[in-house]
Write a structure and sequence with these properties.
Length: 491
């Protein structure tokens, strides 16, 4: 069997974190079996259509390396991938269902249907269509059509039958048709509903496996009824669990917190996003947590996807991201960081451009182990790119370290200055700086921290920063001398 999976979003908003996981599972499953992954746009609900949404989705998927083998942006299009461009196809199959007596015209107005729902709700009944038009005679139907009455087409759900289907994750699912509504398949505007278009397109596009959110499980029996009506073989279904917040509430579809683009703008690495999202509901059957895309493809198995909801935890995403920042090559990360700045923070990009690239990379290499994501980088680097500040006395003086007044601070800073002036050229490593400073400090019979505390403050002007020797290595000798001399002048 040639495996073909698909992601079929409605273009109504930004790409949701939960949808990203759906895409990822479809992609991993297809690639593991040497199959194809397809993107199809279900844009038949014109009232909710957001024009920019699909381009945004395509762009975001490309940003996280999930590029469809087929879809709207592929130059070798086999067929229209927007459902709004396939209306004639759906009309053909609607006609077939009506002729087979598997669907029927419904002429009920929206006002009547609203009143019906309100009455059922007041009586605490399930809100279902009462099948008023299901039993119209041929003559009545012809008369209404010739009179130009608006109509929808509904699925004729068989009476009191068990609809049974196998689900890779949920195993065997059985639903009796008494609990299934006569679903609208074609709306008054001539557009199909999700249910008809979904079934027709999955069949015509040879989709072998439908991997989607658990919330679509109740719709699957309706789809099975249509597959049977057409005498088509249904695809294999796998309904993956929903994503939840820490409070176990479902991730809302309309908050920026669930948009994948938010995490790209905060500049979480693609590696960490994909790695973390893959584990939300899937057990790789190993204690290992970090996987490349290639390893995920090799290990992924739908049989190991959980049935219950998975918690999306920002702290866990931060954990993955910080680990990738520590272990990935600095040059690779720096290039990605520059691309990020060009896209999201051009002002800071210009600041970096004014400095030597080796200086920038030294800073980056030092800080990549201290940040959770690149959005924090700017706040950590203020003192590296701004020479206008000076430390305040309260910061330089530290009673616990017996640095009790500015005269002591001057003494220690002058010792550091003498060491740097003797060196003149830049140090090759932090270890070299350490060796030089420790030897000199011992000559003066002092403790390391007595010298290094005021040096750190003079170099960073901040209460919290990398340690003194690391700052000297990053700032280089010339800039370190300049900052220490500036501090001494203020004292």
């Amino acid at each position: 069997m040639n495996i073909i999976t698909r992601f079929a979003p409605s273009p109504t908003w930004y790409l949701h974190i939960g949808s990203l996981r759906t895409v990822l599972y479809n992609y991993l499953f297809a690639k593991k079996h040497n199959g194809k992954f397809m993107l199809r746009v279900e844009d038949t609900d014109r009232t909710r259509l957001v024009e920019w949404s699909i381009e945004n989705m395509i762009k975001v998927l490309a940003s996280v390396w999930l590029i469809p083998d087929e879809g709207p942006n592929n130059p070798w299009k086999k067929w229209p991938y927007y459902q709004s461009e396939r209306l004639e196809i759906y009309k053909k199959y609607i006609t077939e269902l009506i002729e087979k007596d598997k669907a029927y015209y419904c002429f009920c107005s929206s006002e009547r249907l609203t009143k019906l729902r309100e009455e059922q709700t007041s009586l605490k009944l399930a809100t279902k269509y009462d099948q008023k038009c299901r039993f119209l005679s041929d003559e009545e139907i012809i008369e209404k059509l010739e009179a130009g009455e608006n109509y929808t087409v509904r699925l004729k759900v068989p009476k009191l039958q068990d609809i049974v289907f196998e689900d890779i994750i949920k195993w065997k699912v059985t639903v009796n048709t008494k609990d299934i509504d006569d679903q609208v398949l074609l709306k008054t505007d001539g557009f199909p509903t999700y249910h008809l278009a979904n079934v027709v397109d999955d069949y015509l596009m040879w989709i072998t496996h439908v991997i989607r959110w658990d919330e679509w499980t109740p719709s699957t029996p309706k789809h099975i009824i249509m597959y049977d009506a057409f005498w088509w073989k249904a695809p294999v279904f796998a309904h993956i669990p929903l994503l939840l917040w820490n409070d176990k509430k479902k991730l809302s579809k309309r908050t920026w917190d669930v948009a994948v683009e938010k995490y790209l703008e905060k500049w979480y690495l693609t590696e960490s996003i994909i790695n973390y999202i893959s584990l939300l509901g899937w057990n790789p059957k190993t204690t290992e947590e970090f996987f490349t895309m290639k390893e995920l493809i090799e290990k992924f198995d739908l049989n190991n996807v959980h049935k219950s909801g998975a918690v999306f935890d920002i702290d866990r995403l931060d954990f993955f991201n910080s680990n990738y920042l520590k272990k990935l090559d600095t040059n690779y990360l720096y290039d990605k960081f520059i691309s990020y700045l060009k896209k999201f923070d051009n002002e800071f990009y210009e600041v970096l451009n004014e400095n030597d690239i080796d200086y920038n990379k030294n800073i980056f290499n030092e800080l990549k182990s201290r940040i959770k994501n690149f959005s924090e980088y700017k706040s950590f680097t203020t003192f590296f790119y701004n020479d206008s500040n000076i430390p305040w006395n309260d910061l330089l003086i530290n009673q616990k370290m017996k640095i009790t007044d500015s005269e002591i601070v001057k003494k220690w800073l002058n010792i550091a200055l003498s060491i740097l002036n003797e060196k003149k050229s830049n140090f090759e490593s932090i270890e070299e700086i350490k060796n030089v400073f420790i030897v000199k400090i011992k000559e003066f019979e002092m403790k390391n921290w007595q010298v290094l505390w005021p040096v750190r403050c003079a170099l960073s002007w901040e209460q919290f920063s990398p340690w003194a020797l690391e700052l000297i290595y990053i700032l280089w000798v010339k800039k370190s001398i300049h900052r220490i001399e500036k501090t001494l002048k203020t004292l």
